[in-house]
Amino acid sequence: MHQHHPTSLPKIAGFASIFIGVLAAGFAFISKSSEVSIYLGAAAVFCSLVTIVIARKNIDDLQMAVAGLFLSIVATAIGVWQTYNL
Fold this sequence. Notes:
Layout: H1 9-30, H2 34-55, H3 59-85
């Protein structure tokens, strides 16, 4: 018998956090619009923090959320750097 294992909310949130963080960081590297990079990065940071709260009980899900948070912070930092240096 094959048992179906439903995907948990923390796992989905962790994947979403990484996905949003990658999108924000990628957009910050590609785009010359620093304001959009900052807003997108800040939104990704917020989503990642919510994900960390959701995933705090499972270390694997928490690691994905922290990776997403790191990428989001990088995206925000790139936007801030672009604002003051370009």
